Amino acid sequence: MNSASTAFAPLYVLSVFVIMAVISAGLRALPFFAARWLKHSTTVARLGRFLPPAIMVLLLLHTLVGLAGQTESLLWPWREVLAAAVAIALHLWRGSALLSILTSTALYVLLRSPLIG
User: Fold this and answer.
1) Which of 35, 67, 91, 105 has the fewest CB atoms below 10 angstroms from its CB?
2) Sign of torsion, CA 106 88 60 28?
């Protein structure tokens, strides 16, 4: 390796990091700058209303379909169904997605722990 390429390497790496930082900061700031134009969009309002429940349903289906292929026990996935039922009941009762997700996740982790089995 010649001396010109070794002297160039740290500058090259530093410039790559600077470019990545600028792009990353720009992408993180973009939604805040675009918010004033998207605030009155009917499409964004519709997505904001229907996308969170759709994502939760897809995650639930992905979890239950993934469990159908497992043969760790002959029983149906009672832990998953119980945690999902608690999440649905809490969300219908309190209307808080954060409360229902955190509570049902904690319940699921507790049910899957070796202490309960």
Assistant:
1) 35
2) negative
pLDDT per residue over 49-96, tens digit each? 888 888 878 887 877 776 666 655 556 677 888 888 998 899 899 988
Contact assessment for residue 83 and residue 111, using Cβ atoms and an 8 Å cutoff: yes
Residue 115: predicted pLDDT? 74
Q: Cα dihedral angle (73, 105, 50, 55), rounded to 10 degrees?
A: -50
CA R_g for the chain: 24
What sign does the CA torsion over 76, 54, 105, 69 have? positive
* DSSP code, position 18: H
